[in-house]
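Okay, is this right?
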Amino acid sequence: MGIIRIKYICRCCSQFDKGLNKKIISQIKHLRNHNIETIHYSVCTDDEKASDSSIELIKIPMKTKLIFLKRVKREYNFYNILNYLITTSQEEDIVYLRIPYPSIQLTQILKKARLCKICIEYQTIEPLEYKLIKKYWYLILDFFFGNAIRTYTDAIVGVTDEITSYQLSRAGNQNKPHITIGNGFDVASATVRHPPKYDGKDLHLLCVAHIRRWNGLDRLLNGIANHHNSPKIILHIAGDGEELSHLQELAVHLGITDRVVYHGFTTGRSLDTLFNTCHIGVGSLGIHRIGLKEASILKAREYCARGLPFMYGIKDPDFPLDFPFILQIPPDESPVDMKKVISFAETVCTDHDTPRKMHRYAEEHLDWSVKMKTLKGFLETMSESRKGRPEKNSPDL
Protein backbone atom coordinates (compact mmCIF):
# COMPACT_ATOMS: atom_id res chain seq x y z
CA MET A 1 0.00 0.00 0.00
CA GLY A 2 1.47 3.40 -0.97
CA ILE A 3 1.54 6.29 1.44
CA ILE A 4 -1.72 8.20 1.31
CA ARG A 5 -1.96 11.95 1.72
CA ILE A 6 -4.31 13.61 4.18
CA LYS A 7 -5.68 17.12 3.83
CA TYR A 8 -6.79 18.00 7.35
CA ILE A 9 -9.10 21.02 7.07
CA CYS A 10 -10.42 23.01 10.01
CA ARG A 11 -12.12 26.37 10.28
CA CYS A 12 -9.52 28.05 12.42
CA CYS A 13 -6.55 26.86 14.44
CA SER A 14 -5.93 30.14 16.23
CA GLN A 15 -5.03 31.15 19.75
CA PHE A 16 -8.62 31.14 21.03
CA ASP A 17 -9.44 27.47 21.74
CA LYS A 18 -6.11 26.17 22.95
CA GLY A 19 -7.34 22.72 24.02
CA LEU A 20 -8.83 22.01 20.61
CA ASN A 21 -5.77 23.40 18.85
CA LYS A 22 -3.46 21.13 20.84
CA LYS A 23 -5.57 18.16 19.82
CA ILE A 24 -5.48 18.97 16.10
CA ILE A 25 -1.77 19.76 16.07
CA SER A 26 -0.98 16.57 18.01
CA GLN A 27 -3.10 14.47 15.65
CA ILE A 28 -1.25 15.84 12.65
CA LYS A 29 2.18 15.50 14.25
CA HIS A 30 1.62 11.83 15.02
CA LEU A 31 0.09 11.06 11.62
CA ARG A 32 3.30 12.45 10.12
CA ASN A 33 5.34 10.38 12.57
CA HIS A 34 3.53 7.32 11.15
CA ASN A 35 4.74 8.31 7.65
CA ILE A 36 1.43 9.76 6.50
CA GLU A 37 1.87 12.94 4.48
CA THR A 38 -0.51 15.35 6.19
CA ILE A 39 -1.24 18.94 5.20
CA HIS A 40 -2.97 21.09 7.80
CA TYR A 41 -5.24 23.75 6.28
CA SER A 42 -6.73 26.30 8.66
CA VAL A 43 -9.34 28.63 7.13
CA CYS A 44 -9.39 31.87 9.14
CA THR A 45 -10.56 35.44 8.86
CA ASP A 46 -7.82 37.97 8.18
CA ASP A 47 -7.69 39.16 11.80
CA GLU A 48 -6.80 35.70 13.17
CA LYS A 49 -3.33 34.26 13.61
CA ALA A 50 -2.13 30.68 13.41
CA SER A 51 -1.08 28.95 16.62
CA ASP A 52 1.56 26.83 14.88
CA SER A 53 4.03 27.55 12.08
CA SER A 54 3.32 24.24 10.32
CA ILE A 55 -0.26 25.29 9.48
CA GLU A 56 -1.21 26.25 5.93
CA LEU A 57 -3.23 29.34 6.79
CA ILE A 58 -5.91 30.37 4.30
CA LYS A 59 -7.25 33.80 5.20
CA ILE A 60 -10.68 35.14 4.34
CA PRO A 61 -10.68 38.93 3.88
CA MET A 62 -13.32 40.49 6.12
CA LYS A 63 -13.77 44.21 5.50
CA THR A 64 -17.33 44.62 6.72
CA LYS A 65 -18.00 45.41 10.39
CA LEU A 66 -21.62 44.28 10.33
CA ILE A 67 -21.73 41.03 12.31
CA PHE A 68 -24.49 39.36 10.28
CA LEU A 69 -22.86 40.18 6.93
CA LYS A 70 -19.50 39.10 8.31
CA ARG A 71 -20.87 35.67 9.23
CA VAL A 72 -22.58 35.22 5.85
CA LYS A 73 -19.42 36.23 4.00
CA ARG A 74 -17.27 33.98 6.17
CA GLU A 75 -19.47 30.95 5.53
CA TYR A 76 -19.67 31.62 1.79
CA ASN A 77 -15.91 31.99 1.43
CA PHE A 78 -15.16 29.00 3.64
CA TYR A 79 -17.20 26.69 1.43
CA ASN A 80 -15.64 28.12 -1.72
CA ILE A 81 -12.23 27.28 -0.27
CA LEU A 82 -13.38 23.81 0.82
CA ASN A 83 -14.79 23.15 -2.63
CA TYR A 84 -11.45 24.13 -4.20
CA LEU A 85 -9.43 21.91 -1.85
CA ILE A 86 -11.72 18.95 -2.60
CA THR A 87 -11.95 19.37 -6.37
CA THR A 88 -8.16 19.75 -6.69
CA SER A 89 -7.49 16.62 -4.62
CA GLN A 90 -6.31 13.41 -6.27
CA GLU A 91 -7.08 9.72 -5.79
CA GLU A 92 -4.38 9.31 -3.15
CA ASP A 93 -5.91 12.12 -1.06
CA ILE A 94 -8.24 11.86 1.91
CA VAL A 95 -9.90 15.09 3.01
CA TYR A 96 -10.36 14.97 6.78
CA LEU A 97 -12.86 17.35 8.38
CA ARG A 98 -14.08 18.05 11.88
CA ILE A 99 -17.88 18.37 12.32
CA PRO A 100 -18.84 20.93 9.66
CA TYR A 101 -21.87 23.20 10.05
CA PRO A 102 -24.70 21.83 7.88
CA SER A 103 -25.71 23.92 4.88
CA ILE A 104 -27.04 23.51 1.36
CA GLN A 105 -23.65 24.68 0.03
CA LEU A 106 -21.80 21.90 1.88
CA THR A 107 -24.35 19.32 0.75
CA GLN A 108 -23.84 20.33 -2.89
CA ILE A 109 -20.06 20.12 -2.52
CA LEU A 110 -20.21 16.60 -1.07
CA LYS A 111 -22.59 15.37 -3.78
CA LYS A 112 -20.26 16.35 -6.61
CA ALA A 113 -18.13 13.81 -8.44
CA ARG A 114 -14.63 13.76 -6.95
CA LEU A 115 -11.46 11.72 -6.95
CA CYS A 116 -10.63 11.93 -3.25
CA LYS A 117 -12.30 10.40 -0.21
CA ILE A 118 -13.87 12.52 2.53
CA CYS A 119 -13.85 11.53 6.20
CA ILE A 120 -15.57 13.50 8.97
CA GLU A 121 -14.68 13.29 12.65
CA TYR A 122 -17.52 13.72 15.16
CA GLN A 123 -16.99 14.56 18.83
CA THR A 124 -20.61 14.88 19.95
CA ILE A 125 -24.25 14.44 19.00
CA GLU A 126 -24.57 17.98 17.72
CA PRO A 127 -28.37 18.60 17.97
CA LEU A 128 -28.32 17.69 21.67
CA GLU A 129 -25.39 20.01 22.40
CA TYR A 130 -26.75 22.95 20.43
CA LYS A 131 -30.17 22.58 22.04
CA LEU A 132 -28.50 22.94 25.45
CA ILE A 133 -26.69 26.14 24.46
CA LYS A 134 -29.78 27.43 22.61
CA LYS A 135 -28.32 27.64 19.10
CA TYR A 136 -31.66 26.86 17.53
CA TRP A 137 -30.58 28.09 14.11
CA TYR A 138 -28.22 25.10 13.97
CA LEU A 139 -31.06 22.68 14.71
CA ILE A 140 -32.99 24.04 11.73
CA LEU A 141 -29.99 23.67 9.40
CA ASP A 142 -29.25 20.20 10.73
CA PHE A 143 -32.87 19.13 10.19
CA PHE A 144 -32.74 20.05 6.50
CA PHE A 145 -29.14 19.17 5.58
CA GLY A 146 -27.63 17.00 8.33
CA ASN A 147 -28.63 13.62 6.91
CA ALA A 148 -27.38 14.46 3.43
CA ILE A 149 -23.95 15.49 4.74
CA ARG A 150 -23.55 12.16 6.51
CA THR A 151 -24.88 10.27 3.49
CA TYR A 152 -22.41 11.76 1.01
CA THR A 153 -19.39 11.48 3.29
CA ASP A 154 -17.20 8.46 2.56
CA ALA A 155 -16.32 7.57 6.16
CA ILE A 156 -17.08 8.52 9.76
CA VAL A 157 -14.83 8.70 12.82
CA GLY A 158 -16.49 9.05 16.23
CA VAL A 159 -14.83 9.49 19.60
CA THR A 160 -17.30 7.12 21.32
CA ASP A 161 -19.40 4.20 20.09
CA GLU A 162 -22.55 6.12 21.03
CA ILE A 163 -21.56 9.02 18.76
CA THR A 164 -20.43 6.76 15.91
CA SER A 165 -23.68 4.80 16.02
CA TYR A 166 -25.73 8.00 15.94
CA GLN A 167 -23.86 9.39 12.94
CA LEU A 168 -24.28 6.11 11.03
CA SER A 169 -28.01 6.17 11.71
CA ARG A 170 -28.17 9.68 10.26
CA ALA A 171 -26.27 8.44 7.20
CA GLY A 172 -28.84 5.67 6.71
CA ASN A 173 -26.09 3.12 6.13
CA GLN A 174 -24.69 1.03 8.97
CA ASN A 175 -22.11 -0.42 6.55
CA LYS A 176 -20.51 2.93 5.75
CA PRO A 177 -16.79 2.78 6.66
CA HIS A 178 -16.48 3.91 10.27
CA ILE A 179 -14.37 3.61 13.37
CA THR A 180 -14.43 4.76 16.98
CA ILE A 181 -11.22 6.34 18.25
CA GLY A 182 -11.32 8.13 21.59
CA ASN A 183 -9.50 11.40 22.10
CA GLY A 184 -5.84 11.22 23.00
CA PHE A 185 -3.14 13.32 24.60
CA ASP A 186 0.47 14.13 23.82
CA VAL A 187 1.73 12.33 26.92
CA ALA A 188 5.36 13.37 26.44
CA SER A 189 4.29 17.01 26.83
CA ALA A 190 2.90 16.38 30.32
CA THR A 191 4.92 17.02 33.46
CA VAL A 192 4.24 14.22 35.92
CA ARG A 193 3.11 15.80 39.16
CA HIS A 194 4.75 15.60 42.56
CA PRO A 195 1.70 14.93 44.74
CA PRO A 196 1.20 16.84 47.97
CA LYS A 197 0.63 15.06 51.25
CA TYR A 198 -2.96 14.80 52.37
CA ASP A 199 -3.10 15.54 56.08
CA GLY A 200 -6.87 15.35 56.47
CA LYS A 201 -7.18 19.10 57.13
CA ASP A 202 -7.36 20.67 53.68
CA LEU A 203 -8.45 18.88 50.50
CA HIS A 204 -7.65 20.76 47.30
CA LEU A 205 -9.60 20.01 44.10
CA LEU A 206 -8.51 21.19 40.64
CA CYS A 207 -10.62 21.78 37.55
CA VAL A 208 -8.74 22.73 34.37
CA ALA A 209 -11.25 23.53 31.64
CA HIS A 210 -12.97 26.05 29.43
CA ILE A 211 -15.97 26.37 31.69
CA ARG A 212 -19.28 25.40 30.11
CA ARG A 213 -22.56 24.20 31.56
CA TRP A 214 -21.75 20.57 30.82
CA ASN A 215 -18.70 20.76 33.09
CA GLY A 216 -21.28 20.52 35.87
CA LEU A 217 -19.25 22.53 38.40
CA ASP A 218 -22.47 23.83 39.95
CA ARG A 219 -23.02 20.27 41.25
CA LEU A 220 -19.62 20.43 42.92
CA LEU A 221 -20.26 23.87 44.45
CA ASN A 222 -23.52 22.60 45.92
CA GLY A 223 -21.68 19.60 47.32
CA ILE A 224 -19.03 21.81 48.90
CA ALA A 225 -21.77 24.00 50.43
CA ASN A 226 -23.35 20.91 51.99
CA HIS A 227 -20.05 19.91 53.63
CA HIS A 228 -19.53 21.53 57.03
CA ASN A 229 -16.94 19.29 58.67
CA SER A 230 -13.23 18.62 58.30
CA PRO A 231 -11.43 18.60 55.94
CA LYS A 232 -11.88 22.05 54.44
CA ILE A 233 -12.48 21.52 50.72
CA ILE A 234 -11.08 24.14 48.33
CA LEU A 235 -11.87 24.13 44.61
CA HIS A 236 -9.33 25.66 42.24
CA ILE A 237 -10.67 26.61 38.80
CA ALA A 238 -8.00 27.10 36.13
CA GLY A 239 -9.84 28.36 33.07
CA ASP A 240 -12.41 30.79 31.80
CA GLY A 241 -15.56 30.53 29.73
CA GLU A 242 -19.16 31.57 29.45
CA GLU A 243 -20.29 29.67 32.56
CA LEU A 244 -17.70 31.18 34.90
CA SER A 245 -19.75 34.24 35.91
CA HIS A 246 -22.68 31.99 36.83
CA LEU A 247 -20.41 29.89 39.07
CA GLN A 248 -19.08 33.02 40.76
CA GLU A 249 -22.63 34.17 41.50
CA LEU A 250 -23.56 30.71 42.77
CA ALA A 251 -20.54 30.61 45.11
CA VAL A 252 -21.63 33.95 46.59
CA HIS A 253 -25.21 32.72 46.98
CA LEU A 254 -24.04 29.52 48.71
CA GLY A 255 -21.63 31.41 50.99
CA ILE A 256 -18.54 29.49 49.91
CA THR A 257 -16.44 32.21 48.28
CA ASP A 258 -13.60 31.35 50.68
CA ARG A 259 -13.57 27.82 49.27
CA VAL A 260 -13.38 28.62 45.54
CA VAL A 261 -10.25 30.07 43.92
CA TYR A 262 -10.36 31.41 40.36
CA HIS A 263 -7.01 31.29 38.58
CA GLY A 264 -8.17 32.20 35.07
CA PHE A 265 -6.54 30.60 32.04
CA THR A 266 -3.34 29.02 33.37
CA THR A 267 -0.43 27.37 31.61
CA GLY A 268 3.27 26.57 31.99
CA ARG A 269 4.87 26.53 35.42
CA SER A 270 1.84 28.10 37.07
CA LEU A 271 -0.29 25.15 35.92
CA ASP A 272 2.39 22.68 37.00
CA THR A 273 2.28 24.26 40.47
CA LEU A 274 -1.48 23.77 40.67
CA PHE A 275 -1.13 20.10 39.76
CA ASN A 276 1.52 19.72 42.45
CA THR A 277 -0.57 21.37 45.16
CA CYS A 278 -3.98 19.79 44.47
CA HIS A 279 -5.07 16.30 45.49
CA ILE A 280 -7.99 15.46 43.17
CA GLY A 281 -8.92 16.57 39.64
CA VAL A 282 -12.43 17.46 38.51
CA GLY A 283 -13.57 16.05 35.18
CA SER A 284 -16.87 16.78 33.45
CA LEU A 285 -19.82 16.27 35.80
CA GLY A 286 -22.65 17.44 33.53
CA ILE A 287 -22.25 15.68 30.19
CA HIS A 288 -25.65 14.06 30.79
CA ARG A 289 -27.13 17.52 30.22
CA ILE A 290 -26.26 17.15 26.55
CA GLY A 291 -28.00 13.78 26.50
CA LEU A 292 -24.84 11.69 26.14
CA LYS A 293 -24.21 8.47 28.05
CA GLU A 294 -20.49 8.36 27.34
CA ALA A 295 -17.83 10.87 26.35
CA SER A 296 -14.14 11.24 25.53
CA ILE A 297 -13.03 14.39 27.35
CA LEU A 298 -9.61 15.85 26.55
CA LYS A 299 -8.88 17.08 30.09
CA ALA A 300 -9.45 13.61 31.55
CA ARG A 301 -6.51 12.47 29.44
CA GLU A 302 -4.32 15.28 30.72
CA TYR A 303 -5.21 14.42 34.31
CA CYS A 304 -4.19 10.82 33.67
CA ALA A 305 -0.97 11.76 31.88
CA ARG A 306 0.04 14.08 34.73
CA GLY A 307 -0.93 11.49 37.36
CA LEU A 308 -3.83 13.32 39.02
CA PRO A 309 -6.69 11.09 40.23
CA PHE A 310 -10.02 12.63 39.29
CA MET A 311 -13.79 12.47 39.57
CA TYR A 312 -15.86 11.90 36.43
CA GLY A 313 -19.60 12.03 35.76
CA ILE A 314 -19.70 9.96 32.57
CA LYS A 315 -18.56 6.64 31.14
CA ASP A 316 -15.39 6.94 29.07
CA PRO A 317 -14.52 4.08 26.68
CA ASP A 318 -10.78 4.57 27.21
CA PHE A 319 -10.96 3.85 30.94
CA PRO A 320 -12.17 0.55 32.43
CA LEU A 321 -15.07 0.84 34.87
CA ASP A 322 -12.84 -0.40 37.70
CA PHE A 323 -10.03 2.07 36.96
CA PRO A 324 -8.80 2.78 40.52
CA PHE A 325 -7.87 6.42 39.93
CA ILE A 326 -11.32 7.65 38.86
CA LEU A 327 -14.23 8.39 41.19
CA GLN A 328 -17.44 7.89 39.24
CA ILE A 329 -20.08 10.53 40.05
CA PRO A 330 -23.73 9.71 39.21
CA PRO A 331 -24.76 11.36 35.91
CA ASP A 332 -27.63 13.36 37.39
CA GLU A 333 -28.34 16.74 38.99
CA SER A 334 -27.57 15.75 42.58
CA PRO A 335 -24.87 17.66 44.49
CA VAL A 336 -21.55 15.83 44.59
CA ASP A 337 -21.33 13.66 47.71
CA MET A 338 -18.22 15.05 49.42
CA LYS A 339 -18.00 12.08 51.78
CA LYS A 340 -17.25 9.90 48.76
CA VAL A 341 -14.72 12.42 47.47
CA ILE A 342 -12.93 12.46 50.83
CA SER A 343 -12.91 8.66 51.00
CA PHE A 344 -11.52 8.52 47.45
CA ALA A 345 -8.78 11.02 48.38
CA GLU A 346 -7.83 8.99 51.45
CA THR A 347 -7.36 5.95 49.23
CA VAL A 348 -5.45 7.37 46.25
CA CYS A 349 -3.34 9.86 48.17
CA THR A 350 -1.74 7.18 50.33
CA ASP A 351 -0.10 5.51 47.31
CA HIS A 352 2.86 7.70 46.35
CA ASP A 353 3.27 5.67 43.16
CA THR A 354 -0.13 6.79 41.83
CA PRO A 355 1.23 9.47 39.42
CA ARG A 356 3.66 7.05 37.80
CA LYS A 357 0.99 4.34 37.40
CA MET A 358 -1.43 6.78 35.79
CA HIS A 359 1.24 8.19 33.49
CA ARG A 360 2.19 4.71 32.32
CA TYR A 361 -1.45 3.91 31.55
CA ALA A 362 -1.68 7.12 29.51
CA GLU A 363 1.43 6.20 27.53
CA GLU A 364 0.03 2.77 26.67
CA HIS A 365 -3.60 3.69 25.96
CA LEU A 366 -4.13 7.44 25.56
CA ASP A 367 -1.13 8.82 23.70
CA TRP A 368 -1.80 10.30 20.27
CA SER A 369 0.82 7.97 18.79
CA VAL A 370 -1.40 5.02 19.74
CA LYS A 371 -4.58 6.73 18.51
CA MET A 372 -3.11 7.86 15.19
CA LYS A 373 -1.64 4.43 14.47
CA THR A 374 -5.22 3.13 14.61
CA LEU A 375 -6.48 5.99 12.44
CA LYS A 376 -3.68 5.37 9.92
CA GLY A 377 -4.75 1.74 9.51
CA PHE A 378 -8.38 2.75 9.03
CA LEU A 379 -7.60 5.46 6.46
CA GLU A 380 -5.30 3.17 4.51
CA THR A 381 -8.03 0.54 4.32
CA MET A 382 -10.47 3.24 3.26
CA SER A 383 -8.01 4.46 0.60
CA GLU A 384 -7.76 0.98 -0.89
CA SER A 385 -11.46 0.98 -1.75
CA ARG A 386 -13.01 2.68 -4.79
CA LYS A 387 -11.90 6.30 -5.07
CA GLY A 388 -14.26 9.26 -5.19
CA ARG A 389 -17.96 9.63 -5.81
CA PRO A 390 -19.28 8.97 -9.33
CA GLU A 391 -21.53 11.62 -10.79
CA LYS A 392 -24.36 9.17 -11.41
CA ASN A 393 -24.77 8.75 -7.64
CA SER A 394 -25.32 12.46 -7.15
CA PRO A 395 -29.04 13.14 -7.56
CA ASP A 396 -30.35 16.67 -7.34
CA LEU A 397 -31.77 18.01 -4.10
User: Anything to note?
Assistant: The CA atoms of residues 245 and 331 lie 23 Å apart. The longest strand covers residues 37-45. The domain at 187-365 is CATH 3.40.50.2000 (Rossmann fold). The chain is about 40% helix and 15% strand.
